[in-house]
Fold each of these.
Amino acid sequence: MMYDAIVVGGRCAGASTALLLARQGHRVLLVDRSSFPSDVISTHFLWPHGMSYLNRWGLLEQVTDVTPTYTTIDIVNDGITLSGSVPPELLREYFRDLHGDDSGVVGSYASVRRRVLDQILVEAAAKAGAEVRTGFTVRELITEDGRVVGVRGRAADGRTYEERARVVIGADGRNSFVARALDLPKFDERPRCTFAYWSYWSGFEPGRGQIHRRGRLGGAVVPTNFGQNMVLAWGPSEWSREFRADVPGNYQRALDFISPELGEAVRGGTREERIYGTLDQSGFLRPLHGPGWVLVGDAQTAKDQCTAIGITHAFRDAELVSAALHGWLAGETALDEAMAAYEGRRRSQNAAAYHDYVCTLAEMRPYRHDELQLFVALRGNQEETDRFIATHGDVAPVSEFFQASNLFLLNDAAKESSADYAVFDDFAATSRMYQQNPFA
Amino acid sequence: MPHQGADTVTTTELHQRDDGELIEEILRAARSGDVEAMARTAAEVSEMTRNWAGHIPWDDLADLDPSGADGELARVVADLTEMWEPAHLRNPVDPDEEYALDKNAYDFYRPAGRDLLARTEDFYGWVEARRRTETWQYSRVLEAAPDSVAQITNDLGKRTRGINFNSQDYLSFNTHPAIREAAARAMRDYGPHSAGSPMVLGNTRISDELEVALGELTGLEHVTLFPTGWAAGFGAIVGLVRQSDHVVIDRLAHSCLQQGARAATRNVVRYEHLNVEAVRQHLADIRSHDSRNGILVVTDGLFSVDADWPDLVTLQRVCREHDATLLVDVAHDLGSMGPGGTGVLGMQDLLGQVDIAMGAFSKTFCSNGGFVASNSPALKQYIKMFGGSHFFSNALSPVQTAVVREAARIIRSPEGDELRARLFTAIHALRDELTGRGLTCMGEPSPIVPLLIGNEKLARTANRLLFDRGVLAFMVEFPVTPTGSSRFRLQVQAGHRPEEAREAARIIEGAIADSRAYLSSAFGSAPR
């Protein structure tokens, strides 16, 4: 049997792509080497546009039935708290610009354990008519005349199968087998990144998501499934070796440093699982498409976890690529044209600016004086705080917020002064202290 | 209260060693060729990591050839090592270049500390890094007159000669014999110095004649001269607007207008570029709660980094409907385009019909200086008194005034039409060649040709290459453009031959392609 599309990788990018293509009546085979439900390294975080995608696909309720949600997040930088939401009109503008329609916008956030989320997506793909094979490891891409025409792999029963399709979609993450088999180069590499360690805690209730930064360390606490909270600590990769020497001790030490309140909550709470970690976070781009293949999600652009945007971007890619491929599979557009449209969206000026934004943030340099002053200036200016949060989460373009005339106006409109914040007391000494590796 | 999931989570070992430690142990076993130990340890690695690292054959490690003959063992070792070793150790970068290319000027806007002198050092360190890596596009100097080809030196003392899109002299007046003669005559008659404020005794009879000429060109007869264009924009706004008044300003209007607005009032609204409907809404909004105070709506005519212009007819009407006043900055278009050199105002049949126009002489009129024009003699006297940059500056020099007067004469003569025709032939040649090479020229055909680049690193690197390849172009980035939206601003002159323009386009394309390869960047320049 000849499929229209084979999707390699059945998680956020892959299952959603398979779901959307199958719903449009295409014959889709979805394969993943693992079985579901199962977990994978992830921030679990869904920004409001991520939640909106789920809503557009009719899956939001299934997720929110078992996952706590909230509509305000706290971003705390060196003790300066910004609380806000992503404004609905910016969300609608985002969907209109990128997808041409703004239906289904919701303003909430959630952190979904991947054993929950991926299972929902895979089941939805199957329900939509995609053929789903789990425990299927792709071993080889079949090529003919330089064009990818299918995959060869080992199924759960241990036997080798060969399947063919008009296009093979690599949705298999930053360590993508599809990309490796094609020997694809990496572009725009940003090697400096974070190390991140997290676990699941019960016994306290943060209420909503909090993201903290202090010096070169970051931390987050978010309510997730099973009545637990995910508590994540991260820092610059240069410090990862020393951190790893005592993972539980340094995890607590990091949280205490980032936010004493968060450290205290964790000390009084119960850890429900082991501590997980990753350093595999450096940023890069791969070519997006070629003869018979196209990449989505982390496989096409990998970047650091520090803005927790991976799942949301995977959903975005799924809508973009399925719309492009549908045009071609339905005979409405040429493949080149369809892929050029996808590439235009994914390699645009805005995409470059956001990639730079995340990768620079991931270097985890202490916030500069001017950056912290900007956060102070934003306090009490809810409209601009919301726009900053929308920019941080890649809803609004970086260029719209970080524009000279806007920043000068923010300055002028400031309601608070730096006098209220301890970090400004002896800024030079504090900055020097921040450069010391606390785990050494 | 968090919802409870239907399932409970499968219990995982609470005190299980973390994945980093396990992977180190796998790597130790690999070094002694103990594939059994590798497989045993791999079984302890979390599901999180095993599913993340789908490229590692976690379940098949025992089947690896311990001799390493087929290279598989080495590949697994390399892949595992990559996951747990900081990536920057593998990819060393030149720290100077990284610093120079990563930051932007805004990172230094709010320095720390009470020592105003010492706290400028941080910014200076960045400037030095940009200089060392030859990516600092500012502070270049001319070695001769800035013709269509120019010879320049950068601030490291490095010289180059190239096709010049880096000078503002749209009608090539700087080398025009009549302009030079006018300058020489004024020098002879009045000397180099105006020796006073225009409010006192700084003006000459030439100044009066110039005001009349500008009045005829714009259709707005009451004209005030300023020593620079910046002073005109800033002075017009701070002269008119008080703290309780409002300014509604295009997001991309010129810096002198933005700063004037901020200096005049805290009630500043920035509207989406060119969006007249947004202006209407802002005005209605302001008028719904403030019927007492003034509103100044501010826009450029031809925008100097996007090369587009607003629908001024509608904008002026919307202003009148809300008792707001319109100020249009015609610095880049007056003289260089439109019927008889009347600029965007003439192109939209608005001569004499906008509330206030202001302009600068430095783009087309071959000199420093600026002006404010309106139909109101009262406004003129008011701005002279309260726009501080008029009263409290020395007047334009007699030479400058004479040059601008002569320029205004030529602009309105048949020769002006001829020069503008030559200018637009060069503009079309440049835009067509760039577009034909797949590059993006923004805006409309005008003396400003903005070539979109986007990413700052790419623009800074391309700028470095262009310097050595014989094209002089100004790269604009933040704070002139928003971050992530940098571009080359190519300014065309009537003296550019079409083949020069085409040659420059070829060189520019090559420099951009080489920079993209140098940075190994896959990003394009499409805006969204």
Note: Chain A has three domains: 2-67+107-187+282-353, 84-105+365-440, 194-278.
Amino acid sequence: MPPFPLTRRRMLQMGAAGLALSQVGLRPDPAHAAETVALQLSWLHSVQFAGSYIAQRNGWWRDAGLDVSLLQGGPNAPVEPPVVAGNALVGISAADYTAAAVAQGAPFKIIGVAMQKNPFVIASLPENAVRQPADLAGKRIGMAIANTPVLQALCQLNDVDFNAVQIVPTQYSAQPLISEDVDCLLCWETDLPVAMAMQGIKAVTMLMADHGYAVHSQTYIATEESLADRRDALVALMSGEVRGWNAYRADTDAAAALTVEMFPDAGLDLPTQKLQAQRQVPLMFSAQTDQHGFGWWSDEAVEDNIRTLALLGSKVTPDLWDRSILDAVHGG
Amino acid sequence: MADAVIGTLILLALWQGLAFALQDRFLIAGPAQVLGWSIANAGLIGRALVVTGSNAALGFLAGNLAAIGLAALALVVPRLIPMISGLALVVFCLPMVATGPILRVMMGPGNGPQIVLAALAVYYTTLIPLLAGLRAAPASWLDLIHVYGRGRWAELRHIRLRAALPYLAAGLQIAAPAAFLGAMVGEFTGAERGMGVLTIRFTRALDIPAIWSLAAIAALVAIAAYALIGGIARRILHEPPPVILAPPPGGPTQRGWMQALAVLIAVLALWWAGMRLAGLSPFFAKRPSDVLAALAWAPDAAQTRGTLATALAQTARHVLPGYCAGLALGAGLAVLLGLVPRLSAVLTPLAVALRSIPIVTTAPLIVLLAGRGAAGTVLLVAVMVFFPTFVACQHGLRQAPGRILDVFDSYAASRLRKLIHVGIPAMLPALFAAARISVPAAVLAVTVVEWLATGGGIGGLMSLSASVSDYDMLWSAVVLVTLMSWLGHAVISAAERRVLATHAPEQVRP
């Protein structure tokens, strides 16, 4: 709590002043100037969110007058309620989940896209590999039943007979593939295949995003109310993210090491984190982000997302995406 | 004691052998691997254990204090008993999938939700035996107090509290593993550290030695807590803690229906007012009217009802066989040990261990071992139901009246004959008490397994609904699950009254 009453406007002014001062080498006293905000992560701490850790550790948010707490996610920690309730200013979601929440009446906008390419892959073993969608015919695929629409969409996008694929309901683990109870798994590029690699088992992965499955993932969401009232805080938060992720890209090993160091109780293993950090680079950075900056998206990408989301049974319009915060970050 | 040591060694050898035989399948880590991993990661696991353990301990304390407070209130105002036990049952039946995220939003980061969920997991199993215990005083003692012209306070202090102590001890013993489970599940709502967090991490990473080490350590802690409370109780009470032999609450009489209605109205009022007062957003905190609309007159109401019915049918196919198997196994083992008492030294520790391992760590393991089909889920439900039934039935068998046994002995009746004609009838009240208390436990088990491991049924539907923000569906499922547990409880109470009226009339006398 600040020692004297502060209005939100005054805090923002002080934050902006701090931003200006920091550029000439003067830093505001963070205890007095900081506006407290939270970023709700979508899963347990890991290198998946290392850009945020880098921003935190280097004080880039503090210098901008923000005191950011990073709230860990988990299997029983949906991202949307804390963002709606105002406990978190920004949440890490994905276009499909955000679209579903908006359909249920939540006033969300996507203000940044960390994973330009959806991380879903079909993972298989080399001797019985799925390299093309056509290879799926006749295969047993291990996945959560809840993801059936995802597989249906992939089949439809690639003219594969959905009924020729046999779905085996599995928990989210590589074990059924290793023991050959299934021929392939629907999972993320950055978790189960990494776990397999660390156990010395090579997996072939077919990235669904390379075969027409366009759903933005690890998206930053905020409410319309925050977009109207807390613009400066949003811009400051996203600038820190952009800076953090650029630093991440420059040295993923250092990002992995920082992650393991910051969360000693999370049971993280450095080699695993390093591999995961490398594997998510191609999902997050492209020629387009090189040109326009981290988190940016094109109008065509939005069209592709709308088409894939329609296959998943969700109707969205382009105004689900709001580029104004990123414009301020990259333009300012 | 020697038997127990030998039994433990045999189990360890079997475990190691199985691990060795299946070593390439990423299923089982043997005791040697578990020991090695635990030593290598002693710091990590130690810190996690301290975090989860202290949350569990705080929840244990809070939950049991709440139970004692409610029992005291019931004693002072006996008319409130049906309302208190009705509300307590409803709150106990609330699935953690739904309560977790709400607690997190209300309490923010930190240990709040873990402690509250641990408290919620324990208060019911303490409250019910306590309510029974406070009434378990012989009428002649109470008369004595009144003859001396003393009032209710003396009655409470000198008789009822003492009569209730053994029941309290039994409740606390059951509560210890439950508190640990509640604290671990609480960590799934976004806690920074603890045993639950590590379980998720290592399951994803396919770190088999780590998963088995977590399960083994959690089991050891739970067994230690169980034994410690049992030991303290034995010291204070000088006789083994009895098992809950509570007479069932009001049957399907006119008054019973009125009480049920009163509880229903209270639940709806508390639900509505609670969300209002906490200022929870109607986006995720649905009110009774939202649920009614979603099920009755929303445009997609028919579809919602269909989805719920399908999921519920799937859950029923898992929970009913598991529940019946658990009851049969528990009663069967108790009877078997009655016939061959020597086996007890080996089987009782195994039974305690099975029950004590938190279901959160066993769920991935049992699903790995028994497959993702119905078998794994049925097995887990059976394990949850088995142990309380086993303990209760063992106690029940010991209640066989000595004078009747003497009669059988004088006719040189066989052990089997005595069991059928004396032991089993004496066991029935305990079996029914266990069956009643196991209803919410079985529902909890099946929803947790579906939620964390198999993804099917009503538990899977609830977690899916939360992930796609379909909170109308989630809350409808919560209402349905709670209603089912309550109905199951009521059906068994009715059966209990009917059977006991013939076999143990003293239990159902008002």
Note: The beta strands of chain A are 35-40, 66-71, 90-93, 108-115, 120-124, 140-143, 166-169, 184-188, 204-207, 217-223.
Amino acid sequence: MRPWLSALLLVSVYVLVMTMTHGHASPHDAFLCDYVLRHFHDDTGAHNAVAAILLNYRMYDTMFEALILLTAIVGMHQFLPRRADIEAGEEARHG
Amino acid sequence: MAELHPTEESLVLQLIIGLLYPFMLLYGFHIILNGQFTPGGGFQGGCILATLFVARYVVFPVDDMDSERMHIIERLFLVLILVIPVLLLFTGVVSRYPAYRPLYLMIMDLVIGVEVAFGLGVAVLRFAFFQGVGQTWRL
């Protein structure tokens, strides 16, 4: 019974959120897209709009994207055991 | 890990990966340096460069790389990623000298690529040797 209730809750929340956002969808104005596509070469010197956005228009986004990788590795260093830890654990278990 | 001699691994793997190794290096730097002309760039090319570490692990699964040093290199390049735009882009130097814009894009792509390569390399090697002794993944 309980899995069905939670599934029902999930589906109803999904339908509710979709109807709410569907009703309030504003017509999409593509002025930023037009601006970038027209001016990116003059603004940034890139030959590729994606590179222009990544490395110039939204550089701060790229900077913090690179920080995410560091965060992941710091987390791994913190939580994965080192070789010395594993060997110490083996010795403690056997001896 | 048990002492593993390199020749214990499959000869086919060793030959093929040895053959492909320089091409993987070349392809990774090609993707990175052409980031401003074609789709791709630092992150994608860095992932391709990180496959070099995976390939080396597949052929020679011995934990003899200093992942601490790789992590230090990765952090060094991350500092460059944070410092170069602050000094050159946000101060308006890049927009004042249009001739140097492609150079700036290329340097940023290169720095991001090397950072991602070392970061993913550290991650892959840490997970690969996580189990520790004698439990390496073999093809």
Note: Residues 6-128 of chain B form one domain.
Amino acid sequence: MAKITYREAVRAGLREALQNNPRVFLMGEDVGKYGGTYACSKGLLDEFGPERIRDTPLSESTFVGAGIGAALGGMRPIVEVMTVNFSLLALDQIVNNAATIRHMSGGQFSIPLIVRMATGAGRQVAAQHSHSLEGWYAHIPGITVLAPATVTDARGMLLAALQEPDPVFIFEHAYLYPLEGELDESGLPVDLTLAAIRRAGTDISLITFGGSLWKALEAADQLAHEGISAEVVDLRILRPLDISTVLTSVRKTHRAVVIDEGWRTGSFAAEVSAQIMEGAFYDLDGPVGRVCSVEVPIPYPKHLEDAALPQPEKILQAVHSLMGR
Amino acid sequence: MTHVVGRDHGLELLRQMLRIRRFEEKCAELYSGGKIRGFLHLYIGEEAVAVGAIPCFTSEDAIVGTYREHGHAIIRGTPMGPLMAELYGKANGCARGRGGSMHFFDAARRFYGGLAIVGGGLPVAVGLALADHMQQRRRVTACIFGDGAVAEGEFHESLNLAALWKLPVLFLCENNLYAMGTALGRHQSQTDIARKADAYAIPAEAVNGMDVLAVESATRKAVDFVRAGHGPYLLEYRTYRFRAHSMYDAELYRTKDEVAQWKQRDPIALFQQQLRDEGFFTDADLDNMETAIATEIAEAVSCAEMGPWEPLEDLTKDVYTPAKPAG
């Protein structure tokens, strides 16, 4: 086990992908000379050259679409859309082309495309740069949606995604990039089907993904001091969702809180909650709780931003309320 | 400009234009009869473009089309049977019946749709060309779109990126003067589409899209230019659709006179006359041609009629590629 930051883990994954497969290339805004907005691709231009590390114009729709075309043409593109906020400019290509072409062509064409982007709030960059829309993407059949929360997943999910024949979208929470973690160097491929139990517990299931995982773990620590044993489930993959790991946990703990940085209405947390209701209703001792973002454009001042987002204290409140404390 | 054509080639061009027209006339009839549903966008009036342009590409090249792509698929060589079956929504259609009129696909002929969001095909075509460029293949991607698409951001982004990276893509704008019902002059500040390419340092040419020989000669030249590695090229085919935008269109936005004027320039009638003037062509030739086409279409209809419906249990098949069996 080596200590490594999340951004270094992403970079390690990118480097391995480029080394292992000559058809892999990276393109996106400022991935080359600048080294990546979050420095994930720093040094890769020097190492792999401008044919394989391609700086693009600020044309999200076209470079994502070009990724689709390049994938159709036999390449293995990794497209970096700087942030989820800008991916909105590429929604036509994602929703109308990447997600549909395989089914609509009767299975004639696959699109082995990876699109990576930063997501999430918490860095005081205000309403237009703080979206958490991975739940939206998870709505769309035809694509796979990943939310790596650990350094091992940051590297390993990227490499595993390269084995997928269809489009994979990877959401990297911007708050995670500088965080250090232990990288599993076992060399075993990372699984792309299962949610992970990040902390075992018996009294309540905290179900989350991405940047909120660390808030849930912090809350679980706190709960342990109070004598409440919380199990923390990291969904990891939003589509296809591994509901069975969630249900197994809920059947054991009989209580669940879903934590999701998306807005509450129509959130991914709502989907998880509904599936818990469908699959484990009679195992529940109370309604499924949700901790989501307040329904407001994320504001700039720190105190307001903090108040808008899920926080460990809010998770504690939700747990307390569910457990009648 | 008068183009010279040999007899055999001339008759072949005429035959191909007639194949599209008769196929689509049958489509309109089948639509009225309820056999074809959804949107149906007919190409009638624009046949000279597909017939002149598509054969300039090799079987290795790629074609990216729009929702008005019946003619391109026919000329690319997809048999009419699977095309008609697709229009019926049958499982023996060229996309298993999943797409219908707007979404013809044919992997064997590198026909990538049938993409029906205006402008949405351009980035995909640029990517196909990027894949060829990166794999050092001397292929060309044909990127077909209409005048409506030049108003989309993706048009401008795609021209810029293709030129910036010097990619082997040939942009083919079928300018039929209407973005659905909005005339070119009502949606473009600069109506000379070929000139827009200049902003991206892409060479371009406007061509009489009602003249199959003019289309052919300009396209051949452009394909050679792109294949030689000089980067993208844009052709604007000036053409006109004789039928409504789709089967739901009351055509309130143009006059009957205007349509009648353009029908004077019917690419099939004009070319037929040219062949007659050359002495290449008799009524008997035409009769034989029409009879053979009628037979081909009747067989296509029968292929569609007899084709199976996709079983309900296959509804979600191919949303994802099936996982490879372990081991």
Note: Residues 257 and 289 of chain A are 4 Å apart (CA to CA).
